[in-house]
Amino acid sequence: MTVGRYEHGGPDRSEGFGEALLGGLLDRAHELPPDRVGPAVADLLARLGGRESQILLQDYGQQRLVPLPGEGLAGGEPLPVDHSDAGRCFLTSRPVETASAEGVRVHLPLLDGGDQAGVLAVTLDAVDDDDRRILRRVAGLVADLLQTKNGYTDLFFRTRRGEPMSVAAEIQWSLLPPLAMSMPRVAVAGVLEPAYDVAGDSFDYALNGDALHLAVIDAMGHGLDAATMATVAIGAYRHARRISVELSEIYLFMDRAVAEQFAPDHFVTAQMMRLDTDTGRLQWVNAGHPAPMLVREHRVVRRLDSPTTLPVGFGGDQPQIGEVTLEPGDRVLCFTDGLVEEHESGREQFGEDRLIDCVHRLDRADRSVRAVARDLSHTLVRARDGATTDDATLVLVEWRG
């Protein structure tokens, strides 16, 4: 008999072991309360022979992996993203297996659209290819459940929050898209610092067919005023993008929205981009931001200088559009001025030259944009001794061709 082929007039529809495991969770996923996701996953893994199961979520500072609490799940202290098996799985987006006297500890990335919420960890006596296949599919289902349930619970947010967060930062994090996206033709990764006190910086992106749209903004000031202005700017950007207007019109739309809602001396610097993921044609408008950097073969080869227009809210003229054709593998680094400037008395500016040096050290062929963006941001924070008087944001885009 050939399994899965036609027999008795139709295909074999009998349920196998793996389908029964996943199907049991899928059948009740739509009505599963958020706090029961962990216990349901622990129960499923126990039926596979697993023990010490953990769902490890990335904290907002992207420094640690924090165990999700729940009946049947192993607790424990947060694990560092750097220098741990779970962290290696997280940074590479690949499974990591570690053998010991107790069995095999398996770590699997929780991937959703290329973004990674964290890591699924479980110990089994032994692991074969059937186990790996089922565990990979379980991890995919868990990632989807976390994403779906996150919209109506605070449980995952509380788990990920490693320290007190300002109200302005709460607003900004609720505004953000996933920090990373990885698709066959294009990848995006962004980082915001300080993670628990960010106010005016933000970014947004969308992949619509062949077009990747991206905006990076920096609202003047600090605290709630800056967060409110950033919210208006991103909202106006999304509205204009969704009605499919051109880049220059997106700028004008955002400019009007900020000017109508805030005093004449209030403004938002911004950079809006459109990448044709089929051809590599990149267009951008620069409204007061530092010029992006083009990284080719893991070296910064040029600044993407272009005519700049006034920041959003100042009533600038219709902007000129910069344009370049990327080569497969090219990366474009966008950043706000807080990444390279240090305004604290007695401290020199960090500067773009040192930023470029860091890119050359960290951007390598075997490293994803998510890992490079994270390490680049953290390296710059350490180089400033953790001190900054402004938000610092970077977004890295890779065109894969």
General description of the model:
- Keywords: Hydrolase.
- The protein is an alpha+beta fold.
- It has 2 domains: 6-158, GAF domain (Beta-Lactamase, 2-Layer Sandwich); 166-399, 4-Layer Sandwich (Phosphatase 2c, domain 1), CATH 3.60.40.
- It is 32% helix and 28% strand.
- The protein contains 10 helices and 19 strands.
- The chain has helices spanning 17-29, 37-47, 85-92, 129-149, 155-160, 167-175, 223-242, 247-261, 352-362, 369-383; strands at 6-7, 10-11, 51-58, 64-67, 79-80, 96-100, 103-112, 115-124, 180-182, 186-193, 201-208, 211-219, 268-276, 281-287, 293-296, 299-303, 322-325, 331-335, 392-399.
- The strands form 4 sheets. It has a 6-stranded antiparallel beta sheet with strand order 5-4-3-8-7-6, with helices on both faces.
- A hairpin with a 2-residue loop joins strand 7 (103-112) and strand 8.
- The chain is elongated and about 65 Å long.
